[in-house]
């Protein structure tokens, strides 16, 4: 038995927590997979920051419309009820707190909810930020979806981010391949363990003082 | 009589001078006014400051403008793409300056310029390296950064249809920066597939009213439309499909 979920398994797990009727922005990369696992029959409305609500799945090859793309500049489709708008309105939806949830990737998340996901700070890298900083501070809830460890085996959950920040104190929950963590005033609290992973293993892997979520208080905190 | 129609695309951009600040609409390829950019290259303006979300991809449009060495500075949110080789080279060789702006601040700074706002406070980028040197202010317990309007000498925009008064409608996510850039430049030029007779566009559906537009120029139907209907049969760059998938096109049902 494995100690972690694969990408699709994690996407399915995240999707299961998205309530019917929510307005949601999915970040570029792994978070995009969540769209494929939304519960049948639930009306979750996807926002894409380049100017659309009601985004649908990728089209069949002959049906690609170069005028209809998502934030990752990939071809998408339009669902019945979709709406288009310009960029200032689109980012007003974020900044103005109208989006219920955004799901982002991360290089690092700190135990106070700081997010680093736009730059590794390498001197020769060409900087690019896009909508990451607006998304991080805009949505009512910011979930991060990521592997717990980097390819080099370092924890992405950290005491303090060492990479340049995207937003301060903005992340509310982190879905990793080994566990789900809530960001609480006392640091990361483990909400759910996946596969054979144990709390002690997580403490070892992250080097952080971790607690289990107190179920009695979770539901009111997380909504 | 008002007629903002330019018959020759070069006439529409001929007055753009050395050192001008030019807004270029589009998000990636969608909405990028490629024909206007080609005309801008032809008329020869250089030392340009470009305000656009990206810094060009592939070899066409904004990427070509950079490749031709016409750009001194780029103000954008996301220059790095898998196909941004022309920007990457110019930037690494120190041939152009980059001002990186978070996408929402970029949009709002453009909007503010068009709406006559002196400056505004935004919560985006607080606590990040992009906040350095900016005035911080706490309002109702939250920290904001002072952001100034972004205006331009000229805006080049890609729409779908226009009339001779300069009313414009867009197509799907190709709308992106067009409506706000149209308001923020001294001269706004819009390329469209088609210029239609006055009164043809539904007044309820006009996105950019003609007051914001100085010139419109028709460049012909995009390849994936026929008589304004989506027929597909292209890749993301708008190039015709060459493999077997090309036979699986949309039967003009939209």
TrEMBL record, chain A:
Keyword Transferase: yes
EC number: 2.8.3.6
Any one GO molecular function term: 3-oxoadipate CoA-transferase activity
Keywords noted in UniProt: Transferase
Pfam families: CoA_trans
Similarity field: Belongs to the 3-oxoacid CoA-transferase subunit B family.
Protein's name in the database: 3-oxoadipate CoA-transferase beta subunit
Organism: Microcella alkalica
Classification lineage: Bacteria, Bacillati, Actinomycetota, Actinomycetes, Micrococcales
TrEMBL record, chain B:
Keywords (A to Z) from UniProt: Transferase
GO molecular function terms attached to this record: 3-oxoadipate CoA-transferase activity
Enzyme class label: transferase
Record carries keyword Transferase: yes
SUPFAM superfamilies documented for this protein: NagB/RpiA/CoA transferase-like
InterPro entries linked: 3-oxoacid_CoA-transf_A, CoA_trans_fam_I, NagB/RpiA_transferase-like
Pfam family, one: CoA_trans
Protein known as: 3-oxoadipate CoA-transferase alpha subunit
Native species: Microcella alkalica
């Amino acid at each position: 038995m494995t100690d972690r979920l694969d990408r699709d398994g994690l996407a399915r797990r995240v999707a299961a927590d998205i309530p019917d009727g929510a307005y949601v922005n999915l970040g570029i990369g792994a978070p995009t997979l969540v769209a494929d696992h939304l519960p049948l029959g639930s009306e979750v409305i996807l926002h894409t920051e380049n100017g659309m609500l009601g985004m649908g799945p990728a089209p069949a090859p002959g049906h690609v419309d170069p005028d209809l793309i998502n934030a990752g500049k990939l071809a998408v489709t339009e669902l019945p009820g979709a709406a288009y708008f310009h960029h200032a309105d689109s980012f007003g939806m974020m900044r103005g707190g109208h989006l219920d949830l955004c799901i982002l990737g991360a290089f690092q998340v700190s135990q106070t909810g700081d997010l680093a996901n736009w730059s590794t700070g390498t001197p020769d890298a060409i900087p690019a930020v896009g909508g990451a900083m607006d998304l991080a501070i805009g949505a009512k809830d910011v979930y991060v979806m990521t592997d717990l460890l980097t390819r080099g085996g370092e924890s992405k959950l950290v005491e303090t981010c060492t990479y340049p920040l995207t937003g301060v104190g903005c992340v509310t929950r982190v879905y990793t391949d080994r566990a789900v963590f809530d960001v609480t005033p006392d640091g990361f609290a483990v909400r759910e363990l996946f596969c054979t992973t144990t709390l002690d293993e997580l403490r070892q892997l992250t080097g952080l003082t971790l607690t289990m979520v107190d179920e009695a208080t979770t539901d009111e905190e997380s909504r | 009589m008002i007629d903002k129609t330019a018959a020759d695309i070069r006439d529409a951009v001929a007055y753009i001078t050395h050192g001008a600040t030019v807004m270029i609409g589009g998000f990636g390829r969608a909405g990028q006014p490629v024909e206007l950019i080609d005309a801008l290259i032809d008329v020869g303006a250089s030392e340009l400051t470009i305000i656009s979300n990206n810094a060009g991809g592939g070899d066409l449009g904004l990427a070509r403008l950079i490749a031709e060495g016409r750009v001194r500075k780029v103000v954008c949110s996301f220059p790095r793409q898998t196909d941004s080789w022309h920007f990457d080279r110019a930037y690494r060789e120190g041939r152009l300056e980059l001002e990186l702006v978070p996408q929402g601040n970029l949009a709002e700074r453009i909007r503010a310029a068009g709406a006559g706002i002196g400056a505004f406070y935004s919560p985006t980028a607080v606590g990040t390296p992009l906040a350095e040197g900016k005035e911080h202010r706490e309002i109702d317990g939250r920290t904001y950064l002072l952001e100034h309007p972004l205006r331009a000498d000229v805006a080049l925009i890609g729409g779908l249809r226009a009339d001779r008064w300069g009313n414009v409608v867009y197509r799907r996510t190709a709308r992106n920066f067009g409506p706000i850039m149209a308001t923020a430049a001294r001269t706004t030029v819009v390329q469209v597939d088609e210029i239609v007779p006055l009164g043809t566009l539904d007044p309820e559906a006009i996105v950019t009213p003609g007051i914001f537009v100085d010139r419109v120029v028709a460049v012909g139907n995009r390849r994936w439309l026929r008589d304004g209907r989506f027929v597909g049969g292209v890749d993301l760059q708008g190039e015709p499909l060459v493999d077997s998938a090309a036979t699986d096109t949309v039967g003009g049902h939209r």
